[in-house]
């Protein structure tokens, strides 16, 4: 009897030691992951929205509309090019000195760059200094967001119990579209102003709001404790070689395959939330405010979709859930492009809701845990950030420019772009076949097989 009682007491003690997502500390960590990511991506997506509607008319004057828009999208791509570098640099220090300090630095950089963009004079006043400064600030944004996601995701995942880590990691993913909702609604509100006032100073307001949002985010982030998995290896941090070199020499297949899988989700984002916004406003003549409101609803649906996809990934695995989204993307690519070309607002809304709320969300929901489970703790920040940022750079950063070029090549038709889009999902599906399911992976292991 005594042995039975002792066994029950030991089991109860063990249960008490298992971390819960409902504990005050865990709720604070999840809130920090979500809010911090939302604020960073508010700034980053705000730029993307402005690149679609404003910058071609403010910073790239004296060009034909098509060339000015292309130049505006090129500055957008520059920010995405900086993201992998940001992932490498911030990942290095995140793996060496800890996740928390790196996240505070990245947020401060992002807020400062966005505020300065809001204060930047137009080309008509200062000449070429304006677009050059815009590009420089966009690079800073790219570096900052390159370090943000990996740390925010890992802080949640590495604190969470094994059976809930997919859902915990998704809070950083949900923060992205939540930030997009805020950014889109902010721009939508100022588009109600007269056109000359909007282009003169109205568009600057959402950028200047950033400084207040970053202040709130920093207060929350400063109260979060360091990752326990990192602390367990902290005394060995100085003994490790450069995390980036270890990632590319020991885990190159994980980087390449993970990037190809992630590209599918980010191609949806670049095409539907950047290029398509410009296309339906400029080419189809849709009301700008209505289009932005639909985009905001689509981003909100993405948050909901990520929530469900991440939860099911903890039950079914990352691979099967993500494959549903990849297959749906391949099947729906051409129908979505047809809906865009029809030039009807309601068809645009349906296309956006399917693309973002279902396809992107289903792939993106488990993506945080998916990338983290590819690498061991000592290089996880660098590895996961590199996969994520390469995916976003290739998938979202170049998509608006590529699609704009394909549409010009096709004489205005969207079928070529639709075919290329479908091909990215097929490539992602093939890449996924070579990746082992990570739901049961031991994150404390020295190596990940």
UniProtKB/TrEMBL annotation:
It is a multi-pass membrane protein. Keywords: Cell membrane, Membrane, Transmembrane, Transmembrane helix, Transport. It holds the Pfam family MFS_1. The chain crosses the membrane at residues 29-53, 59-82, 102-120, 126-146, 167-189, 201-220, 255-278, 290-309, 321-340, 346-375, 387-408, 414-432. It is found in: Cell membrane. Residues 29-436 form the Major facilitator superfamily (MFS) profile domain. PANTHER family: SHIKIMATE TRANSPORTER (PTHR43045:SF1). This is MFS transporter. It comes from Glutamicibacter ardleyensis.
């Amino acid at each position: 009897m005594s042995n039975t009682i002792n066994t029950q007491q030991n089991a109860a003690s063990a249960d008490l030691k298992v971390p819960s997502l409902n504990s005050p500390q865990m709720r604070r960590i999840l809130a920090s992951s979500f809010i911090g990511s939302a604020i960073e991506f508010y700034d980053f997506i705000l730029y993307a929205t402005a690149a679609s509607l404003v910058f071609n008319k403010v910073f790239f004057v004296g060009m034909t509309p098509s060339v000015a828009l292309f130049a505006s999208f090129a500055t957008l791509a520059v920010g995405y090019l900086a993201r992998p570098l940001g992932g490498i640099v911030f990942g290095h220090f995140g793996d060496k000195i800890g996740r928390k300090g790196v996240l505070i630095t990245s947020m401060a950089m992002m807020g400062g760059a966005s505020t300065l963009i809001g204060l930047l004079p137009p080309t008509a006043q200062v000449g070429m200094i304006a677009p050059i400064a815009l590009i420089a600030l966009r690079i800073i944004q790219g570096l900052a967001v390159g370090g943000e996601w990996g740390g925010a995701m890992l802080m949640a995942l590495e604190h969470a119990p094994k059976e809930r880590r997919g859902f915990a990691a998704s809070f950083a993913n949900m923060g992205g579209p939540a930030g997009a909702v805020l950014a889109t609604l902010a721009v939508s509100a100022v588009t109600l102003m007269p056109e000359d006032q909007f282009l003169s100073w109205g568009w600057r307001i959402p950028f200047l709001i950033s400084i207040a949002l970053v202040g709130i985010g920093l207060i929350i982030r400063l109260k979060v404790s360091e990752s326990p998995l990192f602390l367990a290896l902290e005394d060995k941090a100085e003994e490790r070689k450069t995390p980036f070199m270890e990632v590319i020499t020991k885990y190159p297949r994980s980087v390449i395959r993970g990037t190809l899988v992630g590209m599918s989700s980010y191609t949806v984002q670049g095409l539907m939330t950047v290029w398509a916004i410009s296309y339906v406003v400029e080419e189809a003549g849709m009301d700008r405010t209505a289009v932005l409101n639909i985009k905001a609803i689509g981003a909100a649906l993405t948050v909901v979709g990520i929530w469900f996809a991440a939860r099911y990934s903890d039950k079914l695995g990352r691979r099967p859930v993500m494959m549903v989204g990849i297959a749906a993307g391949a099947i729906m690519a051409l129908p979505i492009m047809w809906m865009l070309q029809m030039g009807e607002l309601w068809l645009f809304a349906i296309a956006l809701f399917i693309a973002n709320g279902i396809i992107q969300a289903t792939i993106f929901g488990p993506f945080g845990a998916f990338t983290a489970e590819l690498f061991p703790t000592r290089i996880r920040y660098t590895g996961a950030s590199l996969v994520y940022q390469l995916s976003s750079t290739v998938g979202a950063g170049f998509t608006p420019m590529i699609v704009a070029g394909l549409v010009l090549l096709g004489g205005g038709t969207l079928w070529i772009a639709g075919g290329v889009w479908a091909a990215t999902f097929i490539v992602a599906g093939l890449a996924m076949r070579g990746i082992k399911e990570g739901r049961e992976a031991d994150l404390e292991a020295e190596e990940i097989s």
